[in-house]
Structure formats: C-alpha cells, structure tokens
Write a structure and sequence with these properties.
The protein is of the alpha+beta class and 153 residues long. It has one domain (4-152): Hotdog Thioesterase (Thiol Ester Dehydrase, Chain A, Roll), CATH 3.10.129.10. Helix content is 22%, strand content 39%. It contains five helices and eight strands, in the order βββαααααβββββ. It has helices at residues 28-38, 43-46, 48-51, 63-68, 70-78; strands spanning 4-5, 17-20, 24-25, 81-82, 87-98, 107-121, 124-135, 143-152. Strands 2, 3, 5, 6, 7 and 8 form a six-stranded antiparallel sheet that branches. Strands 1-4 form a two-stranded parallel ribbon. The longest helix has 11 residues, at 28-38. The two termini are 21 Å apart.
C-alpha cells in the first residue's frame, strides 16, 4: 500500500519507495474502449488476427492507455497520501518512455519513488515521482515516467 504522511513529513519521503499497486489486467474490451474514446483504431490495438502477424504476436495496449493507468495505480497503492488533502491534480510528466509493449491479457502494476517535492504556496505541494509500470513475468517495464502531481492540503 502507499504511504500516508503529515504535511511536515513529506520531505522525509524523498528518495523512498512510496508503494506498489495491485496487478491490473489489460483486457481487449478496455483497449477497444480506449481506442473508441481516443479515435486511435490502429489494428495492432483492436484486431487480434492482424496483430498476431506482427512482431508483437497479438494486440497491444496503446502507450497512452498504459500511461493513463497512472492515476489508478496511484489510488491503489503506489501514491503518497498527505493527511488533510483536499485534492490532487495531474500536473504532467517531465520524462516519459515507453520501454516494452503491453500485450492484451497481461497484468500491469505501478511502482513509485518520490523524487522531489516543492511547496509552491502554503499547503500546495508539487510532487515529482518516478513511476514504473511493470508487466507481470516480463523483465522490462512497460514505461518509466517522472510524473508530476499538485497536492492541495
């Protein structure tokens, strides 16, 4: 599970692993829905027969689908929680690399390390976390990102 700290203790977590989320199965149904919402219907994502003929050997999740799961992973074990938080918002990424494709049917999870914290205003903290999305039984991660979130306490 992720950690919960007081606002005064946030800086003490820099460099520490915050947590690891539960595994999440990537289904063809969810990939198809993502394709519909984003209008990205490339066959490698939605056509299992055609995708089987590619080096991927089957359909793969969109890179941005995998990236969009960061919020889910943060809420389910790999996010740092601050006591008294009113809200948190996505602030973007400084670095993002898609390392390995995620085959449909795979299970993925997030792992987070707090890299930096800036108090922008009293009670307003900008977190930089290194998030790794791991694929079950695969040596390489799906992605590595420096993810920025603004937390309002």
């Amino acid at each position: 599970m992720g950690k919960t700290v007081s606002p005064d203790a946030i800086a003490s977590e820099i460099g520490n692993e915050i947590g690891v989320s539960d595994w999440f199965e990537v289904t063809q149904e969810n990939v198809n829905k993502f394709a519909d919402v984003t209008l990205d219907h490339q066959f490698i994502h939605i056509n299992p027969e055609q995708a089987a003929k590619t080096p991927f050997g089957g359909t793969i999740a969109h890179g941005f689908y995998t990236m969009s799961m960061l919020s889910h992973f943060s809420e389910n074990g790999c996010g740092l929680r601050v006591e008294g938080t009113k809200m948190g918002v996505n602030y973007g990424c400084d670095k993002l690399r898609f390392i390995h494709p995620v085959r449909v049917g795979s299970r993925i999870r997030g792992r987070s390390v707090l890299k930096e914290v800036q108090e922008k205003q009293p009670g307003q903290f900008l977190f930089k976390q290194e998030i790794t999305v791991e694929i079950e039984d695969v040596d390489k991660p799906a992605l590595i990102a420096e993810w920025l979130t603004m937390v309002f306490v």
